[in-house]
Design brief:
- Helix content is about 0%, strand content about 45%.
- Strands 2, 5, 7, 8, 9, 10, 12 and 18 form an 8-stranded mixed sheet that branches. Strands 1, 3, 4, 6, 11, 13 and 16 form a 7-stranded mixed sheet that branches. It has a 5-stranded antiparallel sheet with strand order 17-76-75-74-73, with no helix packed on it.
- A hairpin with a 4-residue loop joins strand 7 and strand 8.
């Protein structure tokens, strides 16, 4: 945190008086010039030698700037066709000085313990360009925003202390430097940040933008590292055990090169979160520094139409290296950051996590391969097998079945290599540009992360010592490339060094480093076998003379020693296999073929299968892999056989048949086990001594679509795009059954809760039941016309439900094994909704059924037995960000005791509804940039689990103040389904593979469920609160889309549930089923009628029985009151005044209660801190001599007490913090202050004030203190209790002259001991209540400040001009000790809105993010600071209408 004098930002040039050159230095050609673009003076630094022309702050290297702001803003423009350098000396908290340099001189990212060098490249508008070099001729002014804390933490694992010095070297123009702890957005305008919680650039720092022009058309913004990511606030400690899971929380991934683009391309940046906990304990996964960002970019619009230009349209939405250079240098180490790629993204909570942290730990993985099935290795001791499972590297102990994992890759692993001592493991991930990792194999720690010069890495090979790593792949032109890296210093803290690289036009399918010489290698491919050598920093190769075999397609190679075991190169032989069945034995010394053999099938007369294999002529069997031990050669072929041969290939020693083509074989170091993998996803080994084949892993060969679990037998069922249904044992992760369908694809699956049966839905519309005991189909039903999209059964197993892509819903009776169809209803389920395992949901008690339909905008709840429609919820509110209607994606019921229904929507939020009434209980916005297809809630309602793209997110559901989710990576493709195990001890996620996670939190099966969670902070405006009022026609969508009523008449689906019907817990509504709108829509729907509660002359009152007219609804708000509206977001209580009425409105249902009884217009309201009591006060009427104060019971709406405190209008009411006292303040004529005991509402004390008073407030931190403000004074009252009596001690303090003339008109307490007061002249002054002095003031408005509210570190002010301002006042507490010397520049205005009248009332949530504001125009506005919007809630008349009495109301 920056010191107070540096907050909210510091102008470095002004503070150090650069123009005087006393505290700064200049060298060479440095001059002040006028820039036409900025229309102001700037510093020009130029010269042919950058090091000889510069500006330096401070003047001497022995001094220090001492700037502690997290962000450094450099406003500069490179001179055309020149180089420039920016040096920063940054000091860590342990007093280590690190130089951080940015320049277009640097060709690549380099780092040492004390120096970081980052290439900073500015793009031109040419389609082809060299990324590193001179600044383009059209270089523009750039705002370079550097996060110094993240730079040190990520690259050097150090804590940022302060900025010590700055040196700006030629050639560039520089306007200024700023430091701040705030992250400003320099390019935002009202339209751009209306829905984003961002902080605009202060006017002093901003670049000028002419009216009608775009900021991005004139300037460039470079943020490094990306602001949309955050990192832990402390260094990451080393873990003492291998990683069990990589837990991500809010954190940035740095860019090794910054490239500023001059052509804006709009992106949506998805934040990748980093570990919330600042420390890593023993047993926790270490988080290695990542020199590449791991974020997703999804393109919204691109102006690039040139194939050679920035082809970002070709980027996949899940591209893991942020905006990687897809131009000519894609294989390099540059990362391209477009100026408009830094779109601010709303965060969903703070960076603190919930406990336990982590709550999940990866226990097991079901799967093998992903990018291919050729990568499977033995460890040198032969005890474990190393293989990839998509993005996860698995180490499997073959004797125990225990798995451990290497997590960190964000795409499928394409290549693996392990050195001879089990010290280093190398891995590369697919998709260009390829990212590689080096791991400490024993601890599982990632030692190094770097980008390969190759676009795609296909094969890796270590030397036996691990000092050399060779890789083969393709460059960005598609040419074969071989690279040799030196890895000998990695384990000692060094880096990977590229020793040599070479291009070749020959195909390379396999590449190996020889065991006898680390400088020699061999490769094979189409028509080529070559021997390589590393010498003098270059890779050179020579071809082997293949003779007649020159046209063969070689697939694999292996070295074998001579029989005498001589390690000399002259004694080594090379074996190469081909797809034609040939195995060539090559003399490495003479580079000639010594022997050529061919694997051929032989058949017995009339036999359908091969009986034995020989080497002779004829059509051969394609060999895909071979492996050699000192005694034998293992050969894997595409006919599905693994064969073991002696080294002379005289006869087959042993063979094993597989279920698919063998893609890889590997003999263990002891020669006793042979590992084999198949292209069908099987991995196992053959024990040569026992001649028994052991299956290690099976896998789906396509993404998993859905899963289901069975509790009694501990079994798991999965369906996949590979057209198989598989049953797994959860204890061993081994496959039990495999059901294959060649004609139709399985789509959905669920178990019967009590019988050994599972149900499966298919693409043909068939639903079948399978017996797990007999492994056969029991019953089949074909009542659907489209593909089955979801299956679910009631917990007791009596009913089964299925839905299809044509919109039909089927109900089955499963009471007996010969289950049958009960009902089929057409056009019930949304037909165009994406298939999802969460498309149907049954409540935990089995009484309710929920689904998305009949349209994508509605969710329907039915009785599960009767299929009577009980509730229909419209979630189709307009998503203003995308101009599309919100739609439901998945549904899920919470525990029956809660009665919650969770709905994930296309606008990336999860809405929690009451399953009976449909009202919003709370909302979780911004759960993920992409819609979530699956979600589930634990039985104890502690954890909410969501499938979020390729991650799993876990929220603390029980605590609504949860700061944010824990995020878990590992999947390389979108997660399709997540589920808790029946015992709630484990979590399963399915996508590219099936992951089994342990839940580390102890579940409480007997835990009493929390009540309905309080309203979310977005309670009033869940989701996009801007109804069309501010954007379109001031009205949201009014009606639910009308579904076609095509249900078969034989079903008899009732229009409303009968009394006591199944699943109906609320049958008070008659008629059609209820349709409930979400609060974001319904809360802003204008009420239909209203009636003024006033009784005017000539108006006939109805009889007491109310037989004439009944007040139904009120439209209007009394704008001439003050503090006459209250809203409690935690309870949802919302009340305001309209004439003589107190209107209490349910913002979810729109229902109103009207509390009447006042004889005159109500002037003010006050809600007790417990929210159980509401006090309302009115003025005098023609029939009463005193004003009234009515005390209402909030729960019942009844008036409990009626008191007459004042002879004039009551100006203000306030409850003490303990709700034991109520203070009332009379107007300027009465000048009476009265205290009332809330036990009996008897008058405790009353005093007449010497001058008019405008406001009164209790100290929220001390119930014995209250304060009044008025004309020129602040009056502090101390309450002393003496038995039942209260005495008042008064202390009056005059307003300082510095505040200026005018009266104090409003007040509110801040952080102890601060008091904020507003004046009639627009000033806000801050008082120290302990010292009784004013130490700070600033001009907040042009008109009088009539309202102040404080919470946390933010202050809201409302004025008579209609301006509503949000101030950051967190630094004010630190300024108290400065006394009158405090500067108002420490206060920063974050947001400002202009409303339609003077602000008279306001209520905000605790974080001051959103609230309701009333104005004198008779309007109630919903204000969202995060979105920067004000939305009209309620409108009234500015003046009384003819033939109506009262203000602000209207009646029919």
């Amino acid at each position: 945190m920056a010191r107070a004098w540096q907050h909210p930002f510091l102008n470095v040039f002004r503070h150090f008086r650069v123009d005087e050159w006393k505290r700064s230095a200049k060298q060479g050609d440095v001059a002040v010039v006028t820039d036409k673009t900025l229309k102001g003076a700037v510093y020009r630094i130029r010269g042919s030698v950058s090091a000889a022309n510069y500006i330096q702050l401070p003047k001497s290297s022995t001094q220090s700037l001492g700037l502690t702001g997290r962000y450094l803003y450099v406003l500069f423009r490179p001179l055309p066709s020149k180089h420039f350098v920016i040096h920063l000396d940054v000091s860590s908290k342990d007093n280590q000085v690190i130089r951080v340099s940015f320049s277009n001189l640097f060709k690549e990212f380099k780092s040492t313990a004390t120096w970081l060098q980052f290439p900073l490249v500015l793009e031109a508008r040419t389609p082809q360009r060299d990324l590193v070099g001179l600044a383009p001729s059209g270089a523009r002014w750039t705002c370079l925003q550097l996060d110094l804390q993240d730079v040190l933490l990520v690259y050097l694992n150090r804590c940022y202390g302060h900025l010590k010095s700055i040196r700006l070297c030629a050639s560039l123009l520089v306007r200024n430097l700023y430091t701040s702890d705030l992250c400003f957005e320099p390019a935002i305008s009202g339209a751009q940040w209306a829905k984003l919680p961002v902080t605009p650039m202060p006017r002093e720092m901003a670049f000028p933008v002419p009216k009608g022009e775009s900021w991005h058309d004139r300037y460039i913004h470079v943020r490094f590292p990306s602001e949309s990511l955050k990192v832990p606030s402390k260094p990451i400690e080393k873990s003492c055990s291998p990683p069990e899971a990589v837990l991500l929380g809010p954190g940035p991934q740095p860019l090794p090169c910054l490239v500023a683009s001059s052509k804006p391309v709009r992106f949506s940046v998805s934040p990748v979160v980093q570990t919330p906990s600042p420390t890593a304990q023993c047993g926790r996964a270490p988080v290695a520094p990542r020199p590449f960002p791991e974020v997703s970019l999804s393109q919204e619009r691109s102006d690039a139409s040139n194939a050679d230009g920035p082809g970002f349209h070709s980027l996949e939405p899940w591209a893991q290296v942020e905006a990687s250079d897809v131009h000519t240098a894609a294989a390099g180490t540059h990362v391209l950051t477009h100026e408009s790629a830094e779109v601010p993204v709303a965060r969903t909570g703070s960076c603190e996590g919930f406990l336990p942290d982590p709550v999940l730990r990866l226990k097991g993985v079901i799967g093998f391969g992903g990018h291919g099935t050729r990568q499977a290795l033995w460890t040198p001791d032969g005890a474990a097998v190393v293989y990839p499972c998509h993005a996860v590297i698995v180490v499997l102990l073959v004797d125990t079945g225990e798995q451990r994992f290497f997590l960190g890759h964000t795409d499928k692993v394409s290549a693996l290599a392990l050195d001879g001592s089990s010290s280093l493991l190398a891995s590369a991930q697919a998709r260009a540009p390829s990212v590689m990792r080096l791991w400490d194999f024993q601890t599982g720690r990632c030692l190094c992360l770097f980008r390969s010069p190759m676009h795609v890495v296909c094969s890796l090979s270590f030397s036996d010592s691990g000092a050399l790593l060779c890789g083969v792949g393709k460059d960005h032109h598609g040419r074969t490339m071989v690279v040799a890296w030196g890895t000998g210093q990695v384990g000692l803290g060094g880096e990977v060094v590229v020793l040599a690289k070479a291009h070749t036009d020959f195909d390379v399918q396999a590449f190996r480093v020889t065991f006898f010489d680390e400088t020699r290698m061999a490769s094979c491919g189409q028509g080529s076998v070559r021997l390589w050598r590393l010498r003098g920093g270059a890779l050179r190769s020579c071809p082997v003379d293949l003779g007649e075999h020159h046209a063969l397609q070689f697939t694999d190679l292996a070295f074998k020693q001579a029989r005498d075991g001589c390690p000399e190169p002259s004694a080594a032989m090379l074996l190469v296999c081909s797809r034609s069945g040939h195995i060539l034995e090559i003399d490495c010394q003479r580079m000639v073929v010594r022997h050529a053999r061919r694997l051929l099938p032989t058949r017995t007369p009339g036999g359908p299968h091969p009986q034995k294999q020989t080497f002779s002529s004829g059509p051969g069997i394609a060999i895909s892999s071979l492996s050699v031990s000192p005694a034998m050669c293992a050969v894997g072929s595409e006919d599905g056989f693994l064969r073991l041969w002696p080294l002379d290939f005289s006869s087959v020693l042993l063979e094993a048949e597989h279920e698919g083509p063998v893609s890889s074989v590997c003999v263990s170091p002891d020669g006793l086990r042979v590992l084999s993998a198949t292209s069908s996803g099987h991995l196992g080994f053959l024990d040569t001594l026992s001649r028994v084949y052991h299956m290690l892993a099976r896998s789906h060969t396509a993404p998993v679509l859905a899963l289901a679990m069975e509790q009694r037998r501990g079994q798991l069922a999965t369906v996949s795009q590979d057209r198989t249904v598989r049953i797994w044992d959860l204890a061993t992760l081994q496959q039990l059954y495999d059901f294959t369908s060649s004609e139709e694809a399985p789509c959905a699956v669920t178990f019967h809760p009590t019988r050994p049966t599972f149900f499966c839905g298919f693409s043909s519309g068939a639903v079948r039941s399978f017996s797990l005991e007999a492994a056969e189909v029991l019953v089949e039903h074909t009542c659907h016309r489209g593909a089955v999209t979801s299956l679910t059964a009631t917990p007791d197993g009596r009913l089964l439900f299925s839905s299809c892509s044509q919109g039909s819903l089927a109900q089955y009776s499963c009471a007996d094994p010969q289950w049958h169809v009960l009902r089929v209803a057409a056009d019930m389920v949304c037909p165009d909704a994406p298939a999802s395992p969460s498309a149907l949901a049954v409540s935990r008690d089995g009484r309710l059924l929920a689904f998305v339909g009949p349209s994508r905008c509605t969710v329907t709840v039915m009785g599960s037995a009767s299929l009577d429609e009980l509730l229909r919820v419209d979630i189709g509110t307009l998503d203003l960000a995308s101009s599309r209607l919100d739609s439901a994606m998945a549904v899920c019921f919470g525990p029956a005791a809660l009665g919650h229904l969770l709905v994930s929507t296309s606008s990336n939020r999860v809405v929690v509804l009451d399953a009976v009434s449909g009202r919003i209980i709370w909302e979780l916005p911004g759960v993920h940039p992409e819609p979530c297809p699956s979600l589930t809630l634990s039985e104890d309602a502690r954890f909410l689990l969501i499938a979020a793209g390729r991650t799993i997110k876990v929220w603390d559901y029980a605590t609504q103040a949860s700061p944010g989710p824990q995020v878990y990576i590992g999947h390389s493709e979108p997660v399709q389904a997540v589920a808790f195990s029946p015992d709630q001890q484990q979590v399963l996620s399915a996508g590219d593979a099936v992951f089994l996670w342990d839940v580390l939190a102890a579940t409480e099966s007997d835990q009493s469920f929390p009540g309905a969670p309080p309203a979310c902070k977005t309670g009033l405006g869940a989701g996009p609160l801007e109804d069309a009022a501010s954007r379109a026609s001031e009205l949201p969508r009014q009606q639910v889309p009308k579904p076609s009523q095509a249900s078969p008449p034989r079903l008899g689906v009732c229009a409303r549930p009968p009394e006591g019907g199944d699943g109906a817990r609320d049958t008070r509504n008659s008629g059609a089923p209820r349709t409930t709108y979400l609060a974001s829509c319904k809360a802003f729907t204008p009420a239909r009628v209203s009636c003024s509660p006033h009784s005017a002359k000539g108006t006939c009152l109805p009889p007491a029985s109310g037989g004439w007219l009944r007040l139904k609804a009120v439209v209007g708000y009394s704008g001439n009151g003050r503090a006459n509206m209250v809203w409690r977001p935690d309870t949802g209580f919302f009340a305001y005044t309209c004439g003589r009425l107190v209107v209490v409105e349910d913002l979810h249902s729109g229902a109103q209660q009207h509390w009447s009884g006042h004889s005159a217009e109500i002037s003010t309201l006050a809600l007790s801190h417990s929210a159980q009591v509401l006090a309302s006060a009115s003025g005098r009427s023609s029939t009463t001599a005193h004003c009234q104060i009515r005390v209402w019971d909030v729960s019942g709406g009844l008036c409990q007490h009626l008191i007459f405190p004042h002879s004039t209008t009551v100006l203000a009411l306030a409850f003490s913090p303990d709700d034991r006292l109520l203070v009332t303040l009379g107007d300027h004529d009465g000048r009476t202050l009265a205290l009332w005991g809330t036990a009996t509402y008897d008058l405790v004390s009353s005093t007449r004030l010497p001058e008019p008073v405008h406001g009164v407030a209790f100290n929220p931190w001390d119930a014995g203190e209250l304060t009044c403000v008025g004309q020129g004074t602040v009056t502090f009252w101390l309450l002393q209790l003496r038995g039942a009596d209260i005495s008042l001690q008064v202390r009056r303090e005059p307003v300082p002259e510095a505040v200026g003339a005018g009266e104090l008109t409003s007040l509110c307490y801040g952080a102890p001991p601060l008091l904020y007061c507003g004046t009639s002249s627009g000033q806000v002054c801050v008082w120290d209540t302990r010292a009784g002095r004013c130490f700070l003031s600033w001009e907040a408005d042009d008109g009088g400040i009539g309202l102040l509210l404080f919470s946390g570190s933010r202050l809201v002010s409302g004025s008579s001009t209609g301006r509503l301002c949000l101030w950051a006042v967190g630094a004010v507490s630190e300024l108290r000790c400065k006394g009158s010397g405090a500067r108002s520049s420490s206060v920063f205005m974050e947001h400002e809105l202009v409303l339609d009248g003077a602000v008279v009332s306001a209520s905000f949530d605790d974080s001051v993010d959103m609230g309701v504001v009333g104005t004198t125009a008779g309007t109630l506005w919903f204000v969202s600071w995060a979105e920067g919007t004000s939305t009209r809630l309620i409108s009234g008349h500015r003046s009384k209408k003819s033939h109506q009495s009262g203000r602000g109301g209207s009646c029919l």
